[in-house]
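Researcher: I'd like a structural prediction for the single chain below. Treat it as a standalone chain; there are no partners to consider.
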Amino acid sequence: MAFLKPDFFERDVLTVAHDLIGVELEWQGCSGIIVETEAYAVEGDAACHTASRPSAREFVANQPPGTAYVYLNYGMYWLFNLLVKGGAQDGLVLIRALEPRRGIGQMQERRCKLKPQELCSGPGKLGKALGITGEHHGTIMAGRGKPASCGLRVASKTPRVITDIRVGISQAVDFPWRFLAADHPHVSVPHGKVRLP
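Model: Treating it as a single chain, here is the predicted structure.
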């Protein structure tokens, strides 16, 4: 299947977060089907990094759509996001969970876990399983400049997508901006099970 092009990310951040479900994320010999995302809007979303971090606003302004925004969460976990800009609403899409496809042995070694459902069922787990670090911040994932070993392949089939509130945030907690493949065993938190702070 073909790789996604930059224009995929030149749309509204909610549309992109929805449409990434079913896309295959390839990363340096490993891959997985995206089964859970969260959208964060540049404007009007207190939970987005752009609300409090000048560096995030600079990243959005200066990087092309489809660029990886990678940051360290709780000083422990590298989280992988994709920049969306040029549509109705700019933002960042957090890739929350994958169904592993290729490189499963490498993922198991990095995660010290054997069960496929435990490898990438959360953004921190996903980052560790794929070997993503802060060095990968700014990696172009679509179009010119994309590394040969990374990319996002067009979905071969589109699962049914449902929405829910986002996980682990303390602001804008009621936005239904988490997108999940319905009834999928690899998501981080099942539909309807997020605990509000």
